[in-house]
């Protein structure tokens, strides 16, 4: 069974035992949580997009680790004035493992 879920402002195509990187969550390392934001479900080769059915579905996930993302640089420059500015930042990331996809029947 596969699902398309929304978490942390992004959409992911997941199945059990997948590990995804999302922006840092409230949950800490080792905590399990439920994702109710399911957009589509693939079950036995059929794709289900019925909102009433998907409203009863959820995905159980666990935060495996927390880390910093890749460094991103921002550079601004204006001609002739000598203005230059270089800034950088790293997003805080949570690694999330998909434990189980629950639908109405399970």
Question: Which terms would index this structure?
Answer:
mainly beta, 4% helix, 59% strand, elongated
Textual characterization of the structure:
The protein has 106 residues and is mainly beta. The protein has one helix spanning 51-54; strands at 2-7, 10-14, 19-23, 32-35, 38-43, 46-48, 58-68, 72-77, 84-89, 92-102. 4% of the residues lie in helices and 59% in strands. It has a 4-stranded antiparallel β-sheet with strand order 2-1-5-6. The protein is elongated and about 65 Å long. The termini are close together. The mean pLDDT is 93.
In short:
The protein is mostly beta strands.
Q: In terms of topology, how is this protein built?
A:
Blueprint: E1 2-7, E2 10-14, E3 19-23, E4 32-35, E5 38-43, E6 46-48, H1 51-54, E7 58-68, E8 72-77, E9 84-89, E10 92-102
Antiparallel strand pairs: 1-2, 1-5, 3-10, 4-7, 5-6, 7-10, 8-9
Q: Helix- and strand-based class?
A: mainly beta
- Give the N-terminus to C-terminus distance in angstroms: 12 Å
Taking pLDDT < 50 over at least 5 consecutive residues as the criterion, the unreliable ranges are: none
Arithmetic mean pLDDT: 93
* Rg (CA only): 19 Å
The run of helices and strands is: EEEEEEHEEEE
The largest pleated sheet is described as: 4 strands, antiparallel
Strand content: over 45%
Number of strands: 10
**Number of helical runs?**
1
Strand order of the biggest β-sheet: 2-1-5-6
